[in-house]
């Protein structure tokens, strides 16, 4: 696993670390996921959760841990979460510091099943995020059925937002929408200081991207304080 920080620029601190799967030699997630068959999906999803929690504990992480999960690998929320909760209990990881990011949203055909997962996790004190919001199928229509705690704004809406008036208009609308729905926003793919400053001005202080830190393989990044200025 690699860990990438998610920061709150206003608070000048790391608030989450996202756990990202990597190959044995540091290969990116896509190269690993391409090898996972449907038959192995459930076991792979479970193994990633367990590895992420164990490693976060070993590294002394004190921030919230955000774990990607494949929605189609969850056949029954209460049963599928048991190994995760048992691992958290074994290593002393507080369950309230666990967040689950829904990925592969273009493959989610059963919205009712996904809503059941999110609601079940919320009842257990876990939070959820919808990844890549604003890209492909991860769009507004999902919010008619799903009620995630956090929306992660895709890089396509973030890039060059400091000089793109249309992107700024869309981001302002998302800020207003999130406030109405009681959902928080995280901007993904922040790569420049100008983008970060623009997002903060627009009301999106929670940010993630290479500007702050690349994912660190089995290590936790520290943010240069100047990045918040």
Summarize this entry quickly:
GO terms for molecular function: cyclic-guanylate-specific phosphodiesterase activity. By secondary structure, this protein is an alpha/beta fold.
Output the radius of gyration: 17 Å
In CATH, the homologous superfamily goes by the name: EAL domain
CATH topology: TIM Barrel
pLDDT < 50 stretches = none
- Major pleated sheet: 9 strands, mixed
**CATH architectural type:** Alpha-Beta Barrel
> Secondary-structure element order, as H and E?
EEHHEHHEHEEHHEHEE
Q: Helix amount, in percent?
A: 25-40%
Outline? globular
Which structural class best describes the helix and strand composition? alpha/beta
**Overall pLDDT level:** 91
Q: How many extended strands?
A: 9
Describe it for me?
The protein has 229 residues and is an alpha/beta fold. It has one domain: EAL domain (TIM Barrel), CATH 3.20.20. The protein is 35% helix and 20% strand. It is built from eight helices and nine strands. Strands 1, 2, 3, 4, 5, 6, 7, 8 and 9 form a nine-stranded mixed β-sheet that branches. Helix 5 links the parallel strand 4 and strand 5. The protein is globular. The mean pLDDT is 91.
């Amino acid at each position: 696993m690699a860990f990438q920080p998610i920061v709150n620029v206003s608070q000048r601190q790391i608030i989450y670390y996202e756990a990202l799967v990597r190959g044995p030699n540091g290969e990116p997630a896509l190269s690993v996921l391409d090898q996972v068959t449907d038959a192995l999906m459930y076991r792979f999803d479970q193994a990633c959760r367990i590895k992420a929690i164990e490693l976060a504990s070993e590294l002394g992480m004190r921030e919230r841990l955000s774990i990607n999960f494949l929605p189609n690998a969850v056949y029954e929320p209460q049963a599928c979460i048991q190994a995760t909760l048992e691992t958290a209990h074994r290593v002393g990881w507080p369950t309230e510091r666990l967040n689950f990011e829904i990925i592969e949203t273009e493959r989610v055909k059963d919205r009712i099943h996904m809503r059941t997962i999110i609601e079940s996790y919320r009842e257990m004190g876990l939070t959820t995020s919808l990844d890549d919001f604003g890209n492909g199928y991860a769009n507004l229509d999902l919010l008619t059925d799903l009620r995630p705690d956090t929306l992660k704004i895709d890089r396509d809406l973030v890039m060059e937002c400091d000089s793109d008036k249309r992107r700024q208009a869309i981001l302002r609308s998302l800020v207003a929408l999130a406030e109405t729905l009681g959902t928080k926003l995280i901007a993904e793919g922040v790569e420049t200081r100008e983008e970060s400053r623009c997002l903060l001005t627009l009301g999106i202080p929670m940010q993630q991207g290479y500007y702050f830190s690349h994912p660190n393989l089995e290590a936790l990044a520290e943010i240069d304080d100047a990045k918040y200025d």
